[in-house]
Amino acid sequence: MVQYEKLSKHTGAEIKGVDLRQPMSPEVAKEIYDIFVEHCVILFRDQDLTQDDLVRASANFGRLDNPGRPAEFFPSGMEKMNPKVMLITNIREDGKPIGALPDGEMWFHHDTIHRDMPTKATMLYSVEVPTYGGETVFSNLFAAYDALPDDLRKAIDGRMAINAYSFNSTYKDDSNAVAARNQAIHPAVRTHEDNRRKAIYLNRLMSQQLVGLPEDESRDVLDRIFDHIEKDEFLYVHEWLKGDALMWDNRSSIHARRDFPADQIRLMWRTVVAGDSKPE
Ligand SMILES: [Fe+2]
Q: How would DSSP label each residue in 46-103?
């Protein structure tokens, strides 16, 4: 039996006693996957991984996607990386960031919801972390859906939403508008493929408009939903230590990044599990 401990009331579980460098049996992978589906986020502390280890470890939970961005948005440091691993860091060479998403706060989002087939899971591994700040905050959107007031549930049940994203933006601004190149339409409430629970499938950074509602009504409903799903009661705040590997479910959770000091290094490696894959 895989041992684990919940990390907050609704969100997150820490898996105990697993060294991700070691091969994982399909039975153990399935047990861990079930904990991941139920708690939306799983944490493995004290890991010591190479990039290849991280690729192998994340592939226990499905087929890996390539980092999802066109070549012109690839940061320079990616040339030295395993092609399945995205470099996320604020390290700069000649004044230019060598990694993606270099600085500061980032609003709540689902990774790649702006694509027709969003990634199922993201694994993030901390190589170097600042002494304070840079926490990743998660919200369980099964629990948030269950606690929705009736009028908001009626407004989004069965409705579609437009999601758009401009690469490297960390908050919503004009460059993130509906006209953006990278956009996809998805249900505003998503039924999870594995446990059939319903989860809100909207987020503050990328969700632009509810289809079929007048613009001001759509904006009002979305703002109320964003405030609801970001309430403290649904959150787990992860304070990173070096060697943490964290995997979250992009079908049922959102995450945000808190600000951190610009004069300290934050360096993470990220892999993504393809949206249409299953654990082998
Ligand atoms: Fe993200």
A: S----HHHHHHHHGGGSPEEPP-S-GGG--GGGGGS-TT-EEEE--EETTEESSBS-S
Residue pLDDT, tens place only, 82-130: 889 999 999 898 888 888 888 888 999 999 999 999 999 999 999 999 9
Ligand 1 centroid to Cα of residue 179, in Å, is: 21
Compute, in angstroms, the gap from residue 111 CA to the centroid of ligand 1.
5
Q: Residues lining ligand 1 (ion), CB within 5 A?
A: 111
CA of 1 to the centre of ligand 1 (A): 30
Q: Is the pLDDT of residue 13 over 90?
A: yes
The rounded Å distance from CA 247 to ligand 1 centre is 11
**Residue 71's pLDDT band (boundaries 50, 70, 90)?**
low
Cα–ligand 1 centroid distance for 276 (angstroms): 19
Kindly state the percentage of the chain with pLDDT values over 70: 91
Give pLDDT tens digits for 38-59.
Answer: 999 999 999 999 999 999 999 9
CATH number at residue 21: 3.60.130.10
156, part of any domain: yes
Structural domain of residue 137, as residue ranges?
3-273
Q: Which residues pair with 52 in a beta bridge?
A: none
Domain total in the chain = 1
Q: Name residue 53's amino acid.
A: D
101 CA → ligand 1 middle, Å: 9
Is residue 174 situated within a structural domain?
A: yes
Sort 270 into a burial class: Cβ within 10 Å, 0-12 / 13-18 / 19+: buried
Q: Is residue 70 part of a domain?
A: yes
Residue 279 lies in a domain: no
